[in-house]
Amino acid sequence: MAVDVSELVEQARQGRPRAVARLISLVEGASPQLRDVMAALAPLTGNAYVVGLTGSPGVGKSTSTSALVSAYRRIGKRVGVLAVDPSSPFSGGALLGDRVRMSEHASDPGVYIRSMATRGHLGGLAWAAPQAIRVLDAAGCDVVLVETVGVGQSEVEIASQADTSVVLLAPGMGDGIQAAKAGILEIGDLYVVNKADRDGADATARELNHMLSLGDARGPGEWRPPIVKCVAARGEGIDEVVEALEKHRAWMEERGVLQERRTQRAAREVETIAVTTLRERIGDLHGDRRLGALAERIVGGTLDPYAAADELVAGLTES
Amino acid sequence: MAVDVSELVEQARQGRPRAVARLISLVEGASPQLRDVMAALAPLTGNAYVVGLTGSPGVGKSTSTSALVSAYRRIGKRVGVLAVDPSSPFSGGALLGDRVRMSEHASDPGVYIRSMATRGHLGGLAWAAPQAIRVLDAAGCDVVLVETVGVGQSEVEIASQADTSVVLLAPGMGDGIQAAKAGILEIGDLYVVNKADRDGADATARELNHMLSLGDARGPGEWRPPIVKCVAARGEGIDEVVEALEKHRAWMEERGVLQERRTQRAAREVETIAVTTLRERIGDLHGDRRLGALAERIVGGTLDPYAAADELVAGLTES
């Protein structure tokens, strides 16, 4: 069914949550209208400040996200939340319990909450998340919080899609910082020790500070990731987190780092789409006589696989 | 350093193990001469019967492979062994202990043994293994045994690169067949219960037979994977394994299945190389002004990522 894309975009701009939801569905489902939607969104994007939140299960990511939403709402910002669970095959499935905790924002027209599961998606997280972020951006969100379960590679991917990356920790999570994979220590622009009213919060912050300083080879003009303590469940320290975020944003804007990060992000996005497009074109050749004929010549020993691939690539580029 | 490829291929054909080793290094390392090597090999390939062996750690894969090598040597066949460990970043690293057990074949000029670790390889297993198989094939191996550690996706990949896939099991491996991931039950052309002198071997074979029959929707003319018991460490039952292999090979040849499998395999190989080539071409644009300029226009809101990807793809195809 054809959708009036510009009408939908207009409705999303006016703050209609169903239009936003519809647009995200169109972009994450790779619908035939994906390209129309993306073209319509392009001139409306670039306003949102994208904050990535990651951390191991149990650190209180969802509670922290919810507290951040409240804090940004208090200063009049429209907020989008994209909750990404790379391990869940179903949208909202594994995160449903968490989403319920965010129900206080459900009736707020200034907040959009969207869960996204990406397993099995063509191109994975790197492909689907930036498009949903673009919808939220174009819909007028001032801040987009991208919350993801910390599961190795994907958290790094998500971090690479944010303007600012926040790594959440909590005291008493196994052996604390050690449990956080080393990769996490490289991606944070800001570290938040949540559940700071618990025993061991100071030790966690100290240990983290120590580990960050070990790898610290930054020059005098570079950003040193601050460590902020909070108790998200009670809203304590959240204003300080927002303050640290805004400080990082201002720092990036001053030095052109924000523009630079966004340009790099866009470049990666284009690459991912281009590779996916080319893969699809090759996939379309399945059952096609061309690929079959090349394969038969290889089996017959009259062609080698590299020469065949060259012919295939040349063939793609003609079409 | 340039290598005389045709000379190297000629030496490999004459049975010089160092020439074979050198050729495999050239193809797995993506050397500049890769294409020359593949072109030189093409007319010499198609003779080897490729047997994939997979199974969980502890089932005795290496011992079984070694016993199969002995059995094929007794009937005068030249044998190549490719031991793939997708989890090891180092060639031969994790498998060194196993390779020592195969040292009885080390001085046999009719046997080539090669370990391959593929983590981090561009395109992974699907890219590197078929090329090494081609070298062994061209070097005159009648049989190539591809042994891989059973670790999910990669074993399926390896199976898809063999003419015949052998799944190894052993009694008392946790809960036996249940432990074997369901995927394994779909890829075997032949199931071997090794360590058949141990308690529970009959139960394992029965349980396997039951599970195979559950998923059995084969027509009357189709191949029903046999179950063979052996004690590889003492060489018992190995001739029966070879017999079952040869039966499967004859069945495939009779019905054109061998040709069909090889053609499909070649098609996948071409696809993988083509995608890798295109990815590399895109990668070459990093730092290139074209991708940077597109990304800047996206950030500026004058272009959307899909339109940018189209331009990128169009640009690739011109070059």
TrEMBL record, chains A, B:
**Is Zinc a UniProt keyword of this protein?**
no
Q: Which Pfam families does the entry mention?
A: MeaB
Q: Which Gene3D superfamilies is this protein grouped with?
A: P-loop containing nucleotide triphosphate hydrolases
Q: Which SUPFAM superfamilies match?
A: P-loop containing nucleoside triphosphate hydrolases
Asked whether the UniProt record includes Hydrolase among its keywords, one would answer: yes
Keywords assigned by UniProt, alphabetized:
Chaperone, GTP-binding, Hydrolase, Nucleotide-binding
Sequence similarity: Belongs to the SIMIBI class G3E GTPase family. ArgK/MeaB subfamily.
- Sorted alphabetically, which NCBIfam families does this protein's record hold? lao
Q: What is this protein called?
A: Methylmalonyl Co-A mutase-associated GTPase MeaB
- The species this protein belongs to is Streptomyces meridianus
Chain's gene name? meaB
